[in-house]
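in:
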């Protein structure tokens, strides 16, 4: 901004900095210059060839001083927080159990519709829902009680963990239950109780899945068969043993 100052000829401009820069505007130029010089030296260093002997002499000269100044501190935990490994005691051999259950299914006329699936660490015995319960009911029928009694007698001496899981189709339940999950869980609990009453004294896990694991068929004509297969209760025998009651 041009101005006139006393003592100077009229019309000679005098330039003043902005009133809010505090006279520090030169720092911007100095900072830019320093950054450019640093970049220039880094570029020169990257293009240079280091003499191995000189570099080794420098390292040996600085090493005693640096090691005396710097001290590396390694933080170590004061407590052992590692989770303990879960050791599972093996139960009765699944191959033997699979043969035992297949013979039982063949001999028992009520269990002929049951399906046995052998997996790596468990055996799944799937019982159709209409074989066990009336439509919308959670009370085992008399034939189902007889079948479960035979099954409980076979499993009585096992140490394996047994899981009872109930399943349902996606149709809304026409019962007092609010949803399929409650219905499937109640049916699994009923079968679990009957299995315990028939003589099995091992650990029983009870789960209800509702229609969460229902898989819709690719073909429309298979829908009824898929819905029927979804209404079931699975007895799952695991390879590891559980606590005895």
């Amino acid at each position: 901004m041009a101005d006139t100052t006393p003592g100077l000829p009229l019309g000679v401009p005098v330039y003043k900095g902005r009133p809010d820069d505090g006279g520090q505007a030169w720092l911007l130029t100095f900072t830019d210059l320093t950054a450019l010089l640093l970049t220039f030296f880094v570029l020169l260093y990257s293009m240079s060839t280091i003499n191995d002997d000189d570099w080794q002499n420098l390292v040996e000269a600085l090493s005693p001083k640096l090691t005396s100044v710097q001290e590396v501190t390694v933080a170590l935990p004061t407590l052992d927080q590692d989770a303990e490994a879960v050791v599972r005691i093996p139960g009765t051999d699944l191959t033997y159990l699979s043969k035992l259950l297949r013979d039982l299914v063949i001999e028992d006329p009520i269990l002929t519709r049951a399906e046995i699936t052998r997996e790596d660490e468990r055996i799944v015995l799937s019982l159709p829902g209409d074989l066990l319960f009336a439509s919308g009911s959670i009370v085992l029928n008399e034939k189902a009680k007889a079948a479960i009694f035979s099954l409980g007698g076979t499993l009585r001496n096992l140490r394996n963990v047994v899981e009872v899981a109930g399943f349902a189709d996606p149709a809304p339940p026409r019962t007092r239950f609010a949803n399929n999950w409650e219905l499937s869980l109640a049916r699994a609990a009923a079968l679990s109780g009957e299995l315990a009453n028939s003589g099995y004294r091992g650990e029983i896990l009870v789960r209800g899945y509702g229609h969460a694991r229902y898989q819709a068929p690719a073909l429309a004509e298979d829908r009824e068969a898929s819905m029927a297969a979804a209404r079931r209760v699975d007895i799952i025998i695991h390879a590891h043993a559980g606590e005895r009651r």
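note: DSSP finds seven helices and five strands in the chain.
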